[in-house]
Specification:
The complex is a heterodimer of chains A (108) and B (115). Chain A is mostly beta strands. In chain A, 0% of the residues lie in helices and 44% in strands. Chain A starts with 8 loop residues before the first strand and ends with a strand. Chain B contains no helices and eleven strands. In chain B, the strands form two sheets. In chain B, strands 2, 4, 5, 6, 9, 10 and 11 form a seven-stranded mixed beta sheet that branches. In chain B, a hairpin with a 5-residue loop joins strand 4 and strand 5. The mean pLDDT of chain B is 97. The chains are: A mainly beta (108), B mainly beta (115). Chains A and B meet through strand 3, strand 7 and strand 8 of A and strand 5 of B.
């Protein structure tokens, strides 16, 4: 079955740029989405269709892709950005979705 | 207000089935797929499948084929996920998620499987 691969953890200091990667064979043809999940809460969409931000999501969140790799970038990470981040996309058939394993972002 | 509201926590015995409901409001229920996602304690998100509320067509993750059934009742804008032959590994939080960008999430339903 299709898989998306993320690093388990990323750590930055406040104000630095955090980059979280997601690799998958179908990413050149299928848009990645990114979700933020804080402890005990439902996930929140932060990026959809590769690089679009839903309303209410700060401008410091951005997305990009190159080949089989998608990247979520948080420019000037804040302490409140500490959370688990998941990439999400579709397999080549378009019928099945998958989440990456998640990346724990630490900002301290 | 755009929201998905799920049914409450459940406790089931091994081998039993559980049905979780998800009621949509504030948007066109039949306009977008409704997905089911689960999360074990301290673990990542796992996609279970989706239903097209307009047609009833479903796609299930291979892992759950034969054990999961997703249905909907358009008259009350509600989707259902039934999981059968429960084991302790099914003790997780179940979420429904929908909207044009899968940006609307329910609050989650905790299902505990215990003898």
């Amino acid at each position: 079955s299709y898989e998306l691969t993320q690093p388990p953890s990323v750590s930055v200091s406040p104000g630095q740029t955090a980059r979280i990667t997601c690799s998958g064979d179908a990413l050149p043809k299928k848009y990645p989405y990114w979700y933020q999940q804080k402890s005990g809460q439902a996930p929140v969409l932060v990026i959809y269709e590769d690089n679009k931000r839903p309303s209410g999501i700060p401008e410091r969140f951005s997305g990009s892709s190159s080949g089989t790799m998608a990247t979520l970038t948080i420019s000037g990470a804040q302490v409140e950005d500490e959370a688990d981040y998941y990439c999400y996309s579709t397999d080549s058939s378009g019928n099945h979705r998958v989440f990456g394993g998640g990346t724990k972002l630490t900002v301290l | 207000q755009v929201q998905l509201v799920q049914s409450g926590a459940e406790v089931k015995k091994p081998g039993a089935s559980v049905m979780v409901s998800c009621k949509a409001s504030g948007y066109t229920f039949t306009g977008y797929y409704l997905h089911w996602v689960r999360q074990a304690p301290g673990q990542g998100l796992e996609w279970m499948g989706r239903i097209n509320p307009a047609s009833g067509d479903t796609n299930y993750a291979q892992k759950f084929q034969g054990r999961v059934t997703m249905t909907r009742d358009t008259s009350i804008s509600t989707a259902y996920m039934e999981l059968s032959r429960l084991t302790s590994d099914d003790t997780v939080v179940y979420y429904c998620a929908g909207g044009e960008w899968v940006d609307i999430w329910g609050q989650g339903t905790m299902v505990t499987v215990s003898s």
